[in-house]
Every structure is written in structure tokens, then in C-alpha cells.
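EI: anyone free to look at a 436-residue chain?
SC: sure, send it
EI:
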Amino acid sequence: MRYRLRFLIPVILENMLTVATTLIYSAITGAVSKSSLASVGVGNQAMNLVSAFFALITSGCAVITAADVGKRDLLSASRTVEHTISVSLISSAAAAGLLLLASGFTMKLLMPGAEADFLAEGTLYYRTLLFSVPPMVLYNALNSVLRAKGDSRSAFIATVVSNTVLLLLVYILVSRRDMGVKGVALALIVSRCCAALTAFIAVLRSREGFFVKLSRVFAFDKKVLRRVLRVGTPVSMSSIAVQVGYVAINSLLVSLGTLEAGVANVLNAIQQFTCIVHFIASCTATTVVGQECGAGRFAAARKSALAILWISLTATLLLCLPAVSFPRFCTGLFSSDAETIDAAVSFIWLVIPYSLLGMAINALEPAVCASGDTRYAMKVTVSGVWLIRLPLSLLFCMVLGWGVRGVYAANIASFVYRSALHFVRVAGPHFAKNRI
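SC: here you go
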């Protein structure tokens, strides 16, 4: 219990700090212009798709590291982390270059029918932010392996550095220098570079769980790479399916008008608070379940996964209450436009089922993946997004004209399907049958 508290407390603090930073960051961004929060939201959705692709490295290596630490296999864990560093740097730099060349086409595709100023603002933000891809991928990957070995304190320090630099620069570049969305992107670039450097130093100083040697970082081992690909590919495909779904829905909202896109981004900003436990549960499930499965304690792994689920659901429900109790105050934090606020207030209650079901997925899916069953998680996620969420979104928005409400209804239906199947897997007889 003491070990888990030492792990959990920094994760909780890290997530609280990140959410607080996001809320302040969103409030400053939303004050730039009527469309600024929406244009930044479109750019961030595109970047989330990039992050989803690199889940092949970030999540895959974290799952393997947790299992190796549970087995007390120091050499295997060390080689995995060394490959995490080299593959992250090489692949992310190449991806950033290719994405920069296609950035104009990408934003036109993501913002169909958008007003000229709205499109220009979103394109400028996205192009600038692409320079942050290498440090972002490295930071995410190294923080994941640090948590996987149980060192949440170092990951927390890297996040503190990132968020502190981000808030300071957003204030200077946006509030004081009036640089608009370009200032927001520049602040993110610098903050991610600082965070990646901090996490890299923490990994190099590690002496427990894994031991990284710089001389071996670019000494590739086919067996390690195959293992990472086998575990990480299904995780990456699941993440890509989710993020492509988000991008598609965001494009649908943009096509419905600036108001609908603005309302959706206001509600998304509020959910940064109501969903504060999601990240905590995901990190905890990956580390605890992964280490216990690696050590062969499968009954304990199942018990831990279910305990994480019930505690997280209770905490999420409590976090939803302030948002639905004071809707106008909460929406007013992220928009100064009266029409946007009125529209968001009318169905802010939807954050309750959205947040609770999303919480269930964020607790159960990492537990399924950490047990070695990444292919099952991939199948559930891909079918939930592409066979339920997207078709229903088109039906509710384009045919029935429900707007943002239709997007939430479709997403909730998908969440019900995904959370139910993941729960059956964790609670059923097939849990932890696959070995990493």
C-alpha cells in the first residue's frame, strides 16, 4: 500500500497541475478572438492524431517496461527504454517534416467550409506547432516508461517544468505581446523541449528498474524492435482510430459553423476538469496491472483493475457536480461570446454520462492492454469508433440536425459499447491469458 501511495500521489498532483494549466491556457486562448479556441482545438486534434500514431512507442514501451520490471528483468527493460529514445527521436523528426509539407492540405481537409480567417488562424497554429513533434513524442515516451517502472515522481517533475514554462510563455506572448495563436504554439514548443530534456535526464539517472547506456541507444536489436511492434501496434491502431474519429467529428462541427465548433470546444475545456481522474486511472492501471501480470499475480491484477475502476468512477461523479451546478459560470470561463455560452449551458448536463463512461474506458482499456491483450482492446476500440460513433454522428448531426448534442449522443453510445466489452474482459475468464 505504501508503494502504491508513493506512486499515486505524484500522478494525482501531475494531473491536477496539467488540468489547471489547461484551464488557464484555454481561458487565455479563448480571449484572443471568437474563433481562436476553436482553431486551436482543430490544430490540437490534428496533433492528437500524431500522438496516437506514436502510441506505438509511448504506450507499447510502457506496457513492456512494466512487465519487465514486474519480472525483475533489468536488461530487457533497459534495452526497451534505450530503443524508446532512439526510435522516438528518429521517427518523430521524419514525421514532423512530412506533416509540415502537407500542413496546408491537412487543415483544409480538417476545416471544410470554414471561414477564411478561421482557416488561416488554424493553419498558422498547426504549422507552428509541428516543430514541437520531436520533443512531444520523446517527452511522452520517457514519462510513460518512468511511470511504468513506478517512478511517477520524475514524471511529475518533468510535467511541472512543462506546465510552468507553458503558462509563463502564454502569458508573455499572448496576453502581453498579443501574438495570438502563434504565441500559443511557440509557448507549447518551448515547454515541450524543456519537458523532454527533464525527462531525458531522469531516465539517464535511473538505477532501478532499468539502466540506460548512451552507447547502446542507437545499437538496434531486432528482437526488441519486434517485441515493441507486436505490443505497440494494436495500441497505436486503437489510438489512431479514436483520434481519427475525433478529427472527423471536429471537421463535421466546423462545417456546421463557428458557433457549433466554439460550443464543442467550450464543453471540451470543461471536461478537462470533469475528466481529471482519467489520466490518473490510466497510468495507475498500466503500471500496477502490468507489473502484477509480469510477476504472475493475475488474480491480484484483476482485483487492482476493478478497484481502480470503482474508485475512479466515484471521483469523476463528484467532479461533474460543480459543472452542472454552476453551468453559466463554468462556460463563461472559456468564452466571452454570449451566444456560445447560452448554447453550451443548455446541455452541459451531458458531461456527466460522457465523463463517467470515458472514465470506465480509461481505467479498463489500459488494464486489458497491460495484461497483454492489446489486440482485443484494438478490436473493441476500432469497432466502437467506426461502426457506432461515426455513423451515429452523421445521422444525428446531418440528418436529424442535433448539432453538438448529436455528437455527444453518438459518443456516449460508443462509450457504452466499449466500456461494457472491456469490463467483460477484465472480469471474465479470459483476462491475462496472453503473455507479453
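EI: Residues 222-256 form the longest helix (35 residues).
SC: 👍
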